Amino acid sequence: MTSAVGRVGTLAVPAQRVGKLQREGRAAYLFLAPALLFFCVFLILPFIFAIVLAFSDWGGFDLGTLKWAGTANFGDVLSFDGTFVKPILVNTLLFAFGSVFLATFGSVLVAYCIDRLAFQGFWRVLYFLPVVATVVAIGNVWKMMYQPAGLINGVLNKLGVNSIGFLSDASYALPSVTVVQAWASIGGAVLILTAGLKAIPEMYYEAAEVDGANSWHMFWSITLPLLRPALLFVLITQFIGGLQSFALIIVMTGDGGPVNATNVAAFEMYQRAFKYGAWGTASAMAMVLFVIILAITLLQLWVARRRGEETS
Amino acid sequence: MRISRGLRLAVALGLFATAAACGGGGGAAGGSGDKVELTLLSHYSDGPSKEGLDKMIQQWNKENPKVQVKAQVVKFDDLLTTMTVRQTGGRGADIVSAYGLWGGQLMKANVVAKVPDDIATKIKAEYSPAALGAVTTGDTLLGYPTELNTYVLFYNKKILAAAGISKPPATWAELADAAKKTVQRDAKGNIQVEGLSLIQDGDNKSVHPFLSLLDAAGGKFLGPDGTAQFDNAEGKAALKFEADLAAAKATNPSIMPTKQFRSGGVAMAIQAGWWIGSLKTQMKDKYSSDVGVTAIPGPTAGSKGSLAYGFFMGVNQRSKHADEAWKFLTWMNEHKAADGQVTETGKWLADQGLIPPRTADQAAYKKSLSDPNLAPIYDAATYAMAEPNQPGAYEAKTALHNALMGVLADGKNPDDALAQAAKAVKPQ
């Protein structure tokens, strides 16, 4: 009897729990509903629409004119005769890799120095200012500095060097814009890396000092390895941002010129869709860029995991 | 199970919200009872262009209480994007003002309605060939021509005189000679005065000056089917002319004439007629003493060329009040101004320094031009090449721009650049 009651009791408890869990689950989904709705309307549905468009011929305006095009858009986009693979995709990768390399290198250096300075808050704010400023302001200031009669050429002229067409010469335009993108994104990376530096226990440095390690050894053997999770985050977010960025390019070179020298994938997509009404081609480009970003991000995560970093 | 149900709910809600967002508005125009409200989307967003259009709309609204017109304006740079987004969302304006170059694209996407036969017949009979050409795709007229611009050669009289040049250039040889004589550089090679500017403001900035030179040489941009026509002897001659000037450093695409000309930083520039209005405002008294305008010369004496581009106002294919929209457009384009000599629209455009597209208006204004510099601009409307606007023309223009910039900024071989641009032109 006792055992029977006990059995009933033990069965009753899970049933109550299940009921409670169901109620909690419903409540949880109810609370999540606004976020899920937002996610669906502004992310999932447009993404599905973009996939449909990538396989369609559509000139915009009227959904009734949408026609199935198979893989023709991808054929056009990935053709080596066109401009997307070279120079646009090549520019995109150079722009992203270049700005990530410069920004990461610069931000590690700046964060490491700030961590050893007085008034750290002031320095962090100073380096964070470009992140707060609008891309339009940053782009226009640098554009003026790059002009033939601008500050940088003025300094070069004083040093006896002839003016350089930083934004008008196809050989200099992309590196010039890449430097600005890196400069503008250092601030955000410095904040994250500073937090990473603060999380490194002081005792490692004290122990290393006792063992006679110099600053370089400490940076190379303690700081850099323990900063890896923060660095990984910075690398991934900056790289994705670099691959998708085009606002700075619009401000600084207007049309991705000269001669497509600063044209990047995101800008070309915008042009194809909104200027030429070639939504199918633009969406196919978006899919290609999506695959590239996904592949590079997975590669970064794989490399980090092989080195035993926490990446989840 | 619960998860899939939750997800289904989220997707259903998402679809519902999207449908609600896209379906809002439904038609292109609103109306309550017998009263019809027409919307007119344009880029006439400030200054005399906005004031003139608003004045006409106010007059119409006063005289037609049952058909009210409401102006919606955006900056020109945002016009095509706004049209795209609003039309796709089912909220397109009843009347759209658009750049002729977009015509093919708008026609292909069923945005602009066919012009009724009686109105089309009248427009074809009463408007100048350049204005009609700029707003006709294939054989299809897109609407009432409004703005019309032609390209001419602007020059600084004082800079030319200081270089010993007493009259404006009349051939390519004279033009090149004048550009090389007037260019000035400092010891570091920085250009102080550019000889001849081959860049215009805005989109695909190198194309319009080149097409004007191409027209002067007797060449064509695109054929009726959208195929490239510029990779031939005339095109090569026009681009070689530009390449020689770039090699001699008499032209530099990084110098914007709209910023440098007024301060004497550019000796000559191939520009559209609308620029006169800006120069008058910016240069004030110096305008009449310094600025001269002449036809863009061709390779031989007596030859000249220009490009004409235009805007039009058409009716949205989705408008529920197309008849009322055409009635308004007909009134707007045909009713006379207070002086009874020209149409109100003609006056509105002429007041902005633009060429009225209607032949009678042009003739009336040409009789008594207040500024002699306007004469070559009006003349150009009689011989200018109309900017092609079939589907794919915009991409073709960008391909040509990239080729031209390769020559002007990067020193590429003109023949190779033209061949590459021609290959990139894909008829649609």
TrEMBL record, chain A:
Location within or outside the cell: Cell membrane
Domain ABC transmembrane type-1: 89-300
Classification via Pfam families: BPD_transp_1
Coiled-coil features, chain-numbered ranges: none
Residue ranges of the TM segments: 27-55, 88-113, 125-142, 172-193, 230-252, 276-303
Keyword set, alphabetical order: Cell membrane, Membrane, Transmembrane, Transmembrane helix, Transport
Family listed: Belongs to the binding-protein-dependent transport system permease family.
Name used for this protein in its record: Carbohydrate ABC transporter membrane protein 1 (CUT1 family)
UniProtKB/TrEMBL annotation, chain B:
PROSITE patterns with a match to the protein in the record: PROKAR_LIPOPROTEIN
Domain of life from the UniProt record: Bacteria
UniProt keyword annotations, A-Z: Signal
KW Signal (keyword) present: yes
Signal sequence interval, chain numbering: 1-21
Gene3D superfamilies: Periplasmic binding protein-like II
Record bears the keyword Nuclease: no
InterPro entries found in the cross-reference section: Bact_solute-bd_prot1, SBP
Name of protein: Carbohydrate ABC transporter substrate-binding protein (CUT1 family)
